[in-house]
Write a sequence for this structure.
């Protein structure tokens, strides 16, 4: 994760990312992205107008349109930033455990636990956005390609950990995690919190290759 991406994410994870004292020293484009991210996540993409984003970003519509030609372009940038942060999670897990798929597996499940237990969690921001966007919207491509990359990372991880059916295991795990985050939006956190145990049970019981089969 780049320093700029990390600093932006730390602000978003703060209790009040739109605190003027926190935003004041940041460049306008970064303030706009932080404001749009927070407002889109809390209120939805369609209800939030550029005027509200500009105001929350301590700027005006003219400056916003100087950095983003339209609200649609801002939405694409917003989704691209979220996808980059998701990719950075995998980069960090792989870099921290380069030769140990078991540790990578543990690190990823721990990441899932961190996500679903985060008190600010209101579901996956990219999935939330996808529900609101028309199929032809350019941000849909960003979201769909990111989700495909995420699924591919899981397949690679389960293949490296010698699961017999890495694609099927990846699909089951992917659906569990994505479903848990969606359930937070409509069923509260209690059910979603069970996903970590469900994931650990699934991974413990999914068949793996024997030493002979690994050869």
């Amino acid at each position: 994760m780049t320093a700029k991406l990390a600093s932006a994410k730390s602000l978003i994870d703060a209790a009040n990312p739109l605190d003027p004292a926190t935003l004041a020293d940041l460049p306008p484009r970064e303030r706009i992205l932080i404001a749009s991210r927070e407002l889109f996540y809390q209120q939805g993409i369609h209800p939030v107008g550029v005027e509200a984003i500009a105001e929350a970003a301590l700027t005006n519509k003219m400056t916003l349109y100087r950095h983003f030609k339209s609200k649609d372009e801002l939405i694409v940038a917003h989704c691209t930033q979220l996808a980059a942060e998701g990719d950075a999670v995998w980069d960090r897990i792989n870099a921290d455990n380069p030769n140990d798929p078991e540790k990578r597996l543990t690190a990823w499940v721990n990441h899932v636990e961190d996500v679903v237990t985060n008190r600010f969690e209101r579901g996956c921001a990219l999935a939330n956005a996808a529900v609101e966007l028309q199929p032809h919207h350019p941000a849909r491509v960003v979201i769909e390609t990111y989700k495909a990359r995420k699924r591919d990372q899981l397949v690679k991880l389960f293949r490296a950990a010698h699961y017999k059916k890495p694609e099927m295991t990846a699909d089951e795990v992917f659906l569990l995690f994505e479903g848990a985050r969606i359930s937070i939006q409509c069923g509260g956190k209690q059910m979603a919190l069970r996903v970590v145990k469900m994931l650990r049970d699934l991974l413990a019981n999914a068949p793996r290759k024997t030493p002979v089969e690994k050869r």
